[in-house]
Fold:
Amino acid sequence: MPVAWLNAVSGSDIDTAGGKGASLGELRGAGLPVPSAFIVTADTYRTFIDEADIAEDLFEAVDIDSEDSTALAAAEQRARELIMNTEWPDPVRERILDAYGDFGDDPFVAVRSSATAEDLPDASFAGQQETFLNVDREDLLDRIKRCWGSLFTQRAIYYRDEQGFDHEAVDIAVVVQRMVDAEKSGVMFTSHPSTGDSEIVVEGAWGLGEAVVSGSVSPDNYIIDKESGEIEDVTVTTKKTKCVRDAATGETVEKSVDEARRDERVLDGDELDELRRVGRRVEEHYGDPQDVEWAIVDGDVFMLQSRPITTIDESTNGSASKNGDGDGEILVSGLGASPGTVSGRVRSVGKLDHLDAVTDGDVIVAEVTTPDMVPAMKRAAAIVTDEGGMTSHAAIVSRELGVPAVIGAESATATLADDQYVTVDGDRGTVADGAATEAELRDGRSTSTEAGDAGASAGASGAGQASASKPMTATEVKVNVSIPEAAERAAASGADGVGLLRIEHMVLSLGKTPGKYIADHGDRAFRQEIIDGIRTVAEAFYPRPVRARTLDAPTDEFRQLEGGEDEPTEHNPMLGYRGIRRSLDKPAVFELQLEAVRGLHEMGYDNVELMFPLVTDAEDVLRAKSHMQNVGIDPDKRRWGVMIETPASALSIEEIVDAGVDFVSFGTNDLTQYTLAVDRNNSNVADRYDELHPAVQTLLTDVIETCRASDVDTSICGQAASKPAMVQSLVNAGITSLSPNVDAVRDVQHEVKRVEQKLLVETVR
Structure:
């Protein structure tokens, strides 16, 4: 049958109603408050493509290499054309319109995709297909077809391939549901989404839930004890905008919230108690924690959707133990830069041609690590270096990969021999002779037999850290990501997005300079490498934003790569040919990076934002903006911004804002060095390096003040983002977000919350 009403559908009808439709039918059948709806069944879609004789062409069109972005784009376009250009059979058209007429008052409806592989306990396809709000009778049939077509977006095709779902085996139903013209709406987790603790987490904002789900508004956050109903924590945010139905056009539009209501609490105690009651009922009905979308109209609570929570970490002890000193002799010691303990064979890396010798479970020992060593670092059980500090490349990448690291051990390369068994303790900063003992294994430490699983063990450690209760803050706490392979671990931290994704790490890991790689493999291959790297991170965080920074590598790093003999020799590469100045001087390589981002946008990764490094003034910004337009990125429709890393850019902030940026992000490492004329790696003056110096602080706060006046977001993505004194200073100044490294996310979240609570207390005193 073409149409089924919700009261005829249950949770067992996924093949007919899709995941979303079956869930809604199950909820309505259980007496929960779900707005009335009918479902255009999955059989209708299948009959439509079969009887129109387009099924074979449709599935042939999407039978492609999903890693090929060009093929993906062509597949999406062809699939959509086949569906949209096929006429409706008259009986089906009439049955759908008759069902709409049964609502009785020609209401606006939500037209919502409901694929048969969606909202499943072991696979979350949320956001893969389209939803259309405030649809009237005139547009209903068109929107249903568009939902069908959205089964074949680039992102949906890619995701199904990654998950191993056969395209031909996935059908799609469409839910046509009476619109709830919400006064307030949001999401509710019936158990804590990370820990599974017995507390209900509610997020709410004004207007339609689209603003909360899409992330365009930071909602209020409420944590409620599931059993007692006690409100344990309330975080009230500034909600500048809301999504509402335009009375004249019926379309969903974004409008400003009245000044008086922006900082007003959305939900009162009675509403929270009703949401808790509904949440408990739905969790009890399904027997599993649920992620619920809700809306409130005239005091009545409605459930718009419910699906299982798939993010709860069920591990009991993922992190490596710090107990036991071990019996082996301490051979070298340094900074414990990445936690965990593991044993393995030493593999010394002095030159690039040594990297192939590194096998799974080895302990890399090197003077320093560089971005071109990342492929080998991914295979390693642990990292040990002679040089470096907590902000060095080795330290950052090790923490992102979740492997133990000892940095700045001075004599490691001279003391440790190839094939020697050692135990690396990244907590205490020691490297000991021999493998960990059985006693240490019982205490939870790794042994040499587990060295090959070090990445998995450390990944569990990351998950364990993420499982602690995530504080909800008005100031966003994002995370820096250096390499795509660290994306899942970073996403598990609970960060609000990625404040810095470095494209140069993707490029340098190729082992060739951009010019050499393009000469050997072509433009398309270079562009595809960037697409693949960014897509891995964008997928892990979707729909949370990911800021991808264009190439910013100094000449000394390029010189170590194949093709690097043509790089200029510079006395101080950090002050030389890098950042936006290199990109503007080599526009062909620059535009390939931009084309990669445009391709990701076209694939549906609208969470990818562009960021340009080391700008000096508005002229740099305008020239970069011009290149965006050259490759087809509309700077008025896509979010983009720049790094503020020089005093010149900080002092030119008004002109930079006028150039049209959506955000600016502080790179405090460079900004501090350039402001104080201090090289932090020069031991003669390193003690004078201070991000809290009044001159640096003045630049930061002045930029924040100017940007706030123009509604431009501000962020910080340097190491200083994790320092409590810097957090306090910037949150007090009104910064929009902070982006520390993955190991510091949770500490920064708690520090931000502490500062925000203090500000609230001081406001009411």
